[in-house]
Design a protein that fits this description.
With 126 residues, the chain is an alpha+beta fold. The protein has one domain (37-126): Hormone Receptor, Insulin-like Growth Factor Receptor 1, Chain A, domain 2 (Hormone Receptor, Insulin-like Growth Factor Receptor 1, Chain A domain 2, Ribbon), CATH 2.10.220. It contains two helices and nine strands. A four-stranded mixed β-sheet has the order 5-4-7-6, with no helix packed on it. It is found in: Secreted.
C-alpha cells in the first residue's frame, strides 16, 4: 500500500515539473562517488573519492590506506610508513602492504625483516 502511494507521489511530482529535484539528487550522489584528477584531489593523487580519499596515485608513489574508524582513506606517499613495505605494480597502483612477519617491526618485503621488535634479534631475516 505504501509503495503504491510513493509511486503515485513520484508520478504526480514529475508531471508537475518537479522531476528536476530527482535528477539533482541523483547527480549529487554520482559526484560524491568519484572525482577525476586535480584540482579536487590531494597532491600526488590521479583519481580520488570524496569519502575514500585517493583511489589511484601518480606513478612512483605508493597508495597507503589509513584507517579512520570503519572507513579507509587512501593517501599517496613517496615511501611506505614503518611496519609496511612497498609493492610496485606497473599495471595498477603501487601499494603499501603491512608487514606480517612475527616479531618484526619493519620489513623490506613479505619474507625479509629489516628491524625486529625491541629485545629480539634477527635469525635469517625472519
Amino acid at each position: 500500500m505504501q509503495l503504491g502511494l510513493v509511486a503515485l507521489a513520484m508520478i504526480i511530482l514529475s508531471s508537475m515539473g518537479h522531476s528536476d529535484v530527482l535528477k539533482l539528487s541523483k547527480a549529487r550522489r554520482q559526484t560524491r562517488v568519484s572525482t577525476e584528477g586535480p584540482p579536487s584531489c590531494p597532491k600526488g593523487c590521479d583519481r580520488c573519492s570524496e569519502y575514500n580519499g585517493c583511489i589511484k596515485c601518480k606513478p612512483k608513489l605508493f597508495i597507503f590506506l589509513e584507517r579512520n574508524d570503519i572507513r579507509q582513506i587512501g593517501v599517496c606517499l613517496p615511501s611506505c610508513p614503518v611496519g609496511y613495505y612497498g609493492t610496485r605494480n606497473p599495471e595498477d597502483n603501487n601499494r603499501c602492504t603491512q608487514c606480517k612477519i612475527d616479531n618484526c617491526e619493519a620489513c623490506f618485503n613479505r619474507n625479509f625483516c629489516t628491524k625486529c621488535k625491541e629485545g629480539l634479534y634477527s635469525h635469517s631475516r625472519r
